[in-house]
Batch of 3 targets.
Target 1
Amino acid sequence: MGHTKPRVLVIGGGPAGMECARVAAMRGEEVHLYEKQDRLGGRLNIADQTFGKQEIRNVVDYLSLQMDKQGVNVVLNTEVTPELVDELAPDTVVVAVEGVPRIPDIPGIDKPHVVLADDVLRHTVDVGEKVVVIGGELVACEVAELLVEKGKNVTLCDIPAGGGQLAASMEITAKMGYNKLMAERGITLPLIANIRFKEITDQAVTVIHPDGREQSVEADTVVIAAGYLPNDSLAKALKGKTWDPPYVIGDCVQSGRIFGAIHDGARVGRTL
């Protein structure tokens, strides 16, 4: 496969990468955007799976349309490596790849019935009838919501920072709207909070309460929804190159919310 030398290379087709490419192209830059998946959108393509999130699809559609409108050269199904960057020899590199799931250090976390939240939302894994979701923030709630809608028996287990509240870090007005939607649909998400995880067995998740009491929560499937970590491995691998340091935005820096990623992309797009 041949590649054309780009003036600006944006790596990652999520909201941060697309907005950066859009703004830079509007300012007259020649921009090439590479995405390893077969479509643009990044994690937004799974964030719109739950009720009330259909507007996220509008964000993906708008930014995707802007890539064509602003003349951004989009290359899909291509994972960018340091070697490919050497081959492309761009003048400027922007790394905007997705964050990576945070995997808690729990004995048994590597058992075959333990799956990732992203895979549940992508419908690429089978889920049993009794499900424990490890996590209590928004992604965990979205996974639990989706599974409850399918008739699964779901329990969330987490040590949230918000005093036992679901989605504790969610902005207050958004949380109020989310809770209202859940109440209207009659969905309750059981949460076991302020606990430590002892182990994951073949049939259950064993947790320890603050008073030392152990509780075994039955689970055919355990879903890890414990948040995401910054994915800075590619940026680190590009250190020392002629474009060092590369611009690093979105989940590479801090896994966050959609509009924060878009703002990050616009900020860097204006500086290129």
Target 2
Amino acid sequence: MALSGGGFEQAYNAQAAVDADTMLVVATGLSQATNDKEQIQPMLDTLDQQGFSAGIVKTLIADTGYCSAANISACQAAGIAPLTPEASVTETMAHTLKTKAGRALYKLRKQTVEPVFGIIKSVLGFRQFSLRGINKVRGEWSLVCMAWNLKRMAVLRPKTALNP
């Protein structure tokens, strides 16, 4: 991204797919796009490559930045119900988000994905990438998410495992 003083700022846009029950990161994404409008298909591809087929992933809950007709269609084609807030999309999406069930599902985003990013920033202290080049930064983002998962798995392990 060009800066007003004539410099250049290396900027990346990180994504994470998080399981609602465990809060484990199940897939990561990274782009140099300034918004998330085209990031659903790459995440669906990653989930598919990792064996998360339709039926395992039932619903994709994302914020407004991911809301587009193309992203909704991509989810539906993958057999996944998309749930993003209304931007300039179909009336079906707007209606779903107004229902009691739709609102309850969408609330999961705030308690699933948002805490993961918040904890990665404040507890793990990760606020910027150290490397340059999109492939290196993708690897760095994967390592950060792996560190989160290790921390989270320690919390999720059965309490009896501590007392043999």
Target 3
Amino acid sequence: MANDLFITVPETNLPNGVVVPSFEVGQYVCSQGEDGKASVTAEGTPWVRINFAEAKTACEKAGYKLITERQWLAIAHNAAAQSCNWTKGEVGAGKLFRGIRKGQVSGAQAGTYEAPCQKERRWLSLSNGILICDLSGNVYQWVFDDVQGDEQGLIAKPFSEDSPSLQAPYPSMEKGMGWRPNAGANWSGYALVRGGHWGSGSRAGAFNLDGGWPDNRRDVVGFRCTK
């Protein structure tokens, strides 16, 4: 749709040397427009209770695609390299800012909502100065796995030691990274979800990596489009 809000993510090198070309991503988690199609606006409440296949289809019907694992990682690594995204104003100092996660709300919030706690900052800045909302809170987001995944985007093999999915600046649950599994974890048949939701607490983070049954429709899982 013409009024959908997309931002440009610069070309990014992942730690394993893979180059993720520049792409456009929804500035906000997708909501459902009046026409029933996926929409990307500040005012829209995230579209939840949608399963993995339905999220992919919703993106496609709007002329977009579901965000991939490599694209998510590009955004997270780019954001983690910016001093303004750290609680003490320097890369690695304090924690990487995380969004709505402390259970002070009981459902997904529109992009216009301002969390009362300053530690639940919803915005991360990229190297080009553009902001992205809810990469690490409010709602989990389905991710098309183009690292461990099959052609449907579902996890198809265990996480290897060198998988870019497990590579983050700091260990799991440290410095605002969020939770992620250990190498060898076998989630075959699952779909990736990332970020965290309004009640995830310390598990939330831009590098949070969880999984869920692809047929599940939950009020804590939404999705994000790219083009």
